[in-house]
Every structure is written in structure tokens, then in C-alpha cells.
Amino acid sequence: MILSRKWLKDYVDLEDISDKKFCDEMTLSGSKVEEYKIEGADITNVVVGQIKSLERHPDSDHLWICKVDTGGDCDEQIVTGAQNLSKGDFVPAALPGATVLNRKDHCIEKIKKGKLRGIESNGMLCSLDELGLTLNDFPYAAEDGIFVLGEDCERVAGKDIHDAIGYNDTCVEFEITSNRCDCLSVSGLAREAAATFGKDFNFQIPAVKKGHGDVNDFLKVNINEPEKCYRYTGAVVENVRVKESPRWIRERLRASGVRPINNIVDITNYVMLEYGQPMHAFDLRFLKGNTVDVRNAENGEKITTLDGIERRLNSNMLVIADSEKPVAVAGAMGGEYSGIMDDTTTIVFESACFNGISVSRTAKALGMRTEASARYEKELDPGATMNALKRALQLVQELDAGDVVNGVVDCYAKHKVPSKVKFDYKWINNFIGIDLSEDEQKAILAKLEFTFDSNGYVTAPSFRNDIEHIADISEEVARFYGYHNIPNRMLTGTAAGKLNERQKFERTINESLISCGCSEISTFSFVSPKVYDKIALAKDDKKRNSVVIQNPLGEDTSIMRTTIIPSMLEILSHNYNHKNESASLYEIGTVYIPTKPGKLPEESKKISIGLYGNNADFYKLKGIVEKLLAILNTAEYEIAPVKTNPTFHPGRTAEFLINGKILATFGEIHPAVAENYGIGTRVYLAEIDVDTVYENRLAERTHKALPKYPAVSRDLAFVCTKEIPVLTLQKEIAQAVGKTLEAVKLFDVYEGEQIEKGKKSVAFNIKMRSADRTLTDEEADAAMKRAVKALEKTGITLRA
Questions:
Q1: C-alpha span between 690 and 680 (Å, rounded)
Q2: Rounded Cα gap, residues 362 and 367, in angstroms
């Protein structure tokens, strides 16, 4: 919202408040100022000049030599090529050293003394363009020529041009939050300013003089959707005289960022800015049956709006219709023939209040968000429609823009119940941390038009739809008491928040992986469909079935990922191609699995660990995964080789399994996949299912006392086929040895000439210990025999 300080004077006297102080204090009281600008600040040393004489340039057919009175001791000689000047005209004269706009080159131009074809010129006469103005600001000015000041300007030679033409307003831009629609108006911000600076707020109910006839003879209104249109008020003006608005209206509209058009359109825009209530003016001759019917559109119904675009409507959209067709999209934009034309004679002023959600959805669906819809979206006050309508009629009479017909049509379908809250000044003091008396708090609230009753309740004004709780009342007291005046104090009370078990679990994952030397990364959950090709998934792989984003930023972010592997590979690729010699990274991310149409996808957490360089290999990655699972106290799991996963190397990949569920898949990335990501070295990656690990964690961690008796060790070597995992042998040995087993460690794997082709030799160190005595050699040997016998049953032989 852009506020004109000149306009603000109509409501509150702040002559003694500087622009800087005004902006600072308004921001402190809750109305945040983004910036302020002074109109025409780039235009300097330009004054009103009067043409005293005009002579042809002796060496040019189009140049004129002008003697110009600029308020000095003598007239200035200025040469110009303009052809629209006459003796006695008052024009903007830029004196040497002045700055004006050069819109052709988009820059500020400094004026210097010079010569034009040998004749000295002490300055320049300015057009509207060079002052930063347009024909909308001064419709009578020449489009291609010098700006000749009209009677609506102060035509005094030597007067600063800003003051002479009303080009000296201060425009303050506010950031208005969505809950304060009342501040999207001059009167609303004036109310805030009056409360901020302790001044009187001068708001007067508009007064309309008696006109002629009866509005009910001209207009009938029906509201068929009271949940979407709370109130509709209408008035009629006959004998409309369409012309340009007076300078003071054009000035205020320009300062507020609105382009003046003609007196009728300008009145509707003026009222919208002044009261925050959007308005529209219909040409009555295009309103068939002189009827306004507020209804839902029919599916497939069409309307061509004021911007010339034909729009297809549906039954969820509210329209303003006559007896035959829609003439406006409610709350957004009028129809093609609803606007004001040069030959318009009778108009209907509309001031209505529509449901904010309905307007927002319609404007978004039709792609036509306007100043009106932006206000309606925030839920306006139905009580404001009548004052806005009367203000428009008052301006019609003041500007002699037409003849007002007596009366208004007022259909009030849904009244708003003012918000009422129990007032407790002690609670407010304690909540804010201040010490104000009840009367002091009430005085602050009274300035904002809050009222009090005998039952101890405070009632918010109808335009404050953000008041629901006493905390909202507290905010009003706090911001006008002054946030900077509230004393600092320590927080009191006991914090009840704590991490739940799942949060503790995930925090342990982070701490463990960091302790393993990994750095955390975070990637987007949406990816490109092409990533599935890059990790070599089969065309029928179920992981290709992804959640598709309806309004993606682009093809590269158009689906939700079903695997976290591509995200890790992208980051590893980025590091590798930026000459980082090694990387050890991890991420805890979410994947999304589609369910039934219209249902939310299943979400699950995955851990990805990625390594390359710096002695990275399969066993280092395996060690990190095993260490993590050990810290998380995961139940006993099995290991199995993986040869069918196309993303990984078929001979260097494994899985950890528990009860048939995959805890983790880890290994070397397939060279072709690494090449797809531009990684020219071996890459190792693990994907761990967080949910499965969490479900299979042991509730308690057990510890054993330090042993009192010595251990007994034996070494055994076996010959088996290459396909048998070492873990299978370890489990068989452990089961056969029994309770005295302390550890089984692999210390050698051999394949060579002394071993049959297709087989391998694996050697284990087996450590045994008893908690209550020293084991004998006979007990240890017996345990070894049981282990050998157990393995021989599966076709594994003891190596000679």
C-alpha cells in the first residue's frame, strides 16, 4: 500500500512530523514501512518560466529563440525546437545545473549552458516526459511538445515547478500483512498514524445532497449466494458528464501508484484507496432488465472482461449478472461492456462485500488478480460498503460528474458479528511484561475504536477481523505502548519439550556418522525422471513409479524421488568434478512411494552414505555401516551378496538382511553408472532403511564384566565354494562351539594353485573363554571337533 502524505492530512494533522520520523514511528507501532520517496526528487532547479517573446532562429526553420521570465533580475534566453508555444505561456524552465529525466536513455540528464547553431541557450524548456510525468497526470498537455501549465497550476514565474504543479508529495510504501485489510486504505493508515502520534483522527461520514427520482425505479438487486456475497449496495447517477478529474484527484491517484483515467473511473479508484472498499461503475444501458443478479456462473458460461480477454467460467465462480448474462466477475473485474465510455449517460455504482476465499479461488483460476481481488481476498468489512458508496456519490456531486438519483439499494444478506473478548488488564500486563493501569490500557484501545461494556468485555471494531483472543488485544496494547519500551526479562517456567524416541534415534545416526568421518548433505526430494535412467533401473522397475508434481518448477524437479541414491551421486559428482580428491558424505532423506490415486504417498526415511578417494573401498564402507548398526543396537542380521541390482557392481555389492527385510544395500557403484555421473574413479555407496533399523533395534544393551579367566584360541581353515559367504561359516562355527565362544574372526582368504578351481580357503581364529573357570585343552579340542563336524555336514571340508 502506497500512502500519500498530502492525502493523509485530510484525516490527521502531522505537519510537525518529518518523513523520517513518520516512517520510523509507524514501523515501531506495527505498520512496517518498506520505503518512502519524494515525488520528482530527481528533478532539480526547474522553475516556472513565462514566455516573454518568441523569435525564429536565423539559421533554422524549426528552432525558436525564447526570452523567458524565470523570476530573476533579467529574462533568460532559451532556444527550443518546440512548436506549441505562444507568448505569455507558463512552462517548466530547467536552468543551468538543473537535472531532468532522459527517458530515451533511461538516465538523469544535467542541463548546461550551450549554443544551438551559434545562438546561446541558458537552459531548457521541459516536456512532461522530462519531468517524469505522463498525459494521465495532465491530459491537456501536448503529447509531443513543451508542457504548458494550465489554470490548475500556480503560474508564477520563478516558482519551483514541484510546488507549482503539485509534484511534491511524499509517497510512503507500507508492507501490509494479510490480517490487516483495514490498513489497505488511506483512512485505515490514518487511524494507525493518529494512534501512533497521539493525534485526533478526523473521519467524517460522507454526506450526499438530495437528488432526484428514486433508485428503485432504476435498479433491482438479488443475492442468490449469501455465503459468497455478504452485502451488495448500489446507487444510480444520471446525466453523467465524463471528463478529466481535477488536479487534486489526479495528484493523489498518481502518488498512490494509480493511473488517472476519467472522473467516473477515478472516483471508484479514489474511494477504493481512501476507504479500502473496491467499487465498480456499470453503464446502465448494458445492464439488461436493470437487474443485478449475484449468482454462481454456469459451467461453460463465458465473459469477456475489461482487459479484452474471453474467459470460461464454472459453477464455483461468483458473477454479477443482469437478466441475461454475466456482466462482471464478482470481486475481480468487470465485463467488456460494463465500463464507462465517452457516451455513457447513466451509471450504477456498485459497492459490495464478497467472500474472500471465493474471490481468491476465482481470480487464481482465471489468472486475473487485481487491486480489487487482492483486497477482497483478505475478508473486508461488510459494514464499510455503505460509506464507500456514499463517498462516491459525494464526489460525483463535488466534481459535477452527474446527477445523483435519490436513495440506495442495500441487500445485506449476511451480517458480521463483531468480535468480543473478555478484558483483563492484569493478564495483559503479565503477558507483555509491563505495568499499565486499566484506564491506560483502555485509552490505547479506545484510540483504535475498541469499545467496552459493563460486563467486562472489549468489542473490536467491525473492520478488525484479526481480533479473536485476549492475546490479540495484548498485541494492540504492546505496539502502542512501544515494543522498545517493554523491559527485558528472563524467561520463566519450565520447558516441557523433549525429544521422543524416534528423534533420539535419528540424532544418534547423525552423531555416529559424523564420528565415522562423514559430512552431512541435504538435497531436494524432487528430481527428474531421467535419474532412473542414469542409475540404470530397468524400464519395468517399480521404483520408476513416482509421485508427479502438478506444478513443477521444471522438468528437473517434476517428480518425488523413490530412491535416495541419485541425490547422493549428484553431490559426489559435483565434488569430483570440482577437483575434490576425496569425499565421505551422508544424508538422511525421505523417499515417496505412490499409493492409490488421490491418496497421499507413503513416506519413509533412508540413509545414504557415499565415498570415493582417500583409500575408500568396499570394506571401509562396510565397516561404517556395521559400526552404525552396532551403535543403534540392531538385532542380529545376515549378509548376502547382491548380483542383480543394476546400479551396483555385481561382484562387489552386499545386503544386510533381518527377517527377510533389507536393512542396508552397500557396495561399489557400477562403472557405467559412475560414468553417467561423470565420476572417473571408483564410487562406494550404501542405502540404509531407517524404518527397518528402527523396528529391529534391541530395547536393552547388555554388558559383560571383564573376564577373570584366560581365553583359549584355536585356528581352523576350511575349503568351500566361492559363493558361500564368510558370515554363514561364522554362524555355523558359533552355533557348534556353544556358550564358551567369545569371538570368531576371519584372518585369511586364499585362492590359488593349491586350492581346487572355483573354491576358496578361509581361515578363522576362534577364541573361547569360560566365565567361572579356566578351559582345558580337551574342552577346546572337543569344541573344534563339533565345529568341523557341523561344517562338513554342509559339504565344507577342513583344509589339510
A1: 30
A2: 8
Average pLDDT over all residues of the chain: 92
Residue range 260-274: mean pLDDT, rounded: 94
**For 587-610, how does the pLDDT look when each residue is reduced to its tens digit (9 = 90+)?**
999 999 999 888 899 999 999 999
User: What is the DSSP code (8-state) at residue 192?
Assistant: H
Pairing of strands 583-593, 519-520: parallel
Is 106 buried (19+), middle (13-18) or exposed (0-12) by CB count in 10 A? exposed
Query: What burial letters (b/e) apply to 109-123, b meaning 16+ CB within 10 Å?
Result: bebeeeebeebebbb
pLDDT digits (tens, 9 = 90+) for 309-354: 899 999 999 999 998 899 999 998 888 877 788 888 999 999 999 9
Distance (Å, rounded) from C-alpha 572 to C-alpha 566?
10
Show Cβ contacts of residue 169 under 8 Å, excluding neighbours closer than 6 positions. Answer: 4, 5, 6, 38, 39, 251, 252, 255
Record the cell numbers describing residue 725, joined without a space. Answer: 559367504
pLDDT in tens, 69-124: 999 888 999 999 999 999 999 999 999 999 999 877 778 889 999 888 888 999 99
**453-461: long-range contacts at Cβ-Cβ below 8 A with a sequence spacing of 24 or more?**
456/422, 456/423, 456/424, 457/420, 457/421, 457/422, 457/423, 458/420, 458/421, 458/422, 458/423, 459/418, 459/419, 459/420, 460/418, 460/419, 460/420, 460/421, 461/418
Secondary structure element (H or E) that encloses residue 471, with its range: helix 470-481
pLDDT by residue (tens digit) across 520-569? Answer: 999 999 999 999 999 999 999 999 999 999 888 888 999 999 999 999 99
Residues 184-223 have pLDDT tens digits of 999 999 999 999 999 999 999 999 999 999 999 999 999 9
Q: Which three cell numbers stand for residue 146?
A: 513543451
Q: Which of 307-321, 380-394, 478-492, 763-777 bottoms out in mean pLDDT, i.e. has the lowest?
A: 478-492
Q: Any idea what DSSP says for residue 689?
A: E
Q: Please give the share of the chain, as a percent, with pLDDT higher than 70.
A: 100
CB atoms within 10 A of CB 760: 18
How far apart, in Å, are the Cα atoms of 337 and each of 17, 286, 304, 439, 715? 46, 7, 9, 56, 99
Q: List the grid coordinates of 343.
A: 457516451
Residue 465's DSSP bridge partners are: none
495 pLDDT more than 70: no
CB-based contact 513:609 (threshold 8 Å): yes
271 close to 256: Cβ distance less than 8 angstroms: no
- Higher-confidence position of 707 and 648: 648
CA–chain centroid gap for 291, Å, is 41
- This prediction has a pTM of 0.67
Q: Which region, left, alpha or beta, applies to residue 735 given φ > 0 means left and ψ of -120 to 50 means alpha?
A: alpha
Q: Are 442 and 453 within 8 A, CB to CB?
A: no
Please tell me whether residue 538 adopts helix, strand or coil conformation: coil
Task: Enter the C-alpha cell of residue 257.
Answer: 501508484
Q: Grid coordinates 541558458 are at which residue?
A: 122
Residue whose C-alpha is closest to residue 564's, from 514, 526, 530: 526
Strands 220-223 and 291-296: parallel
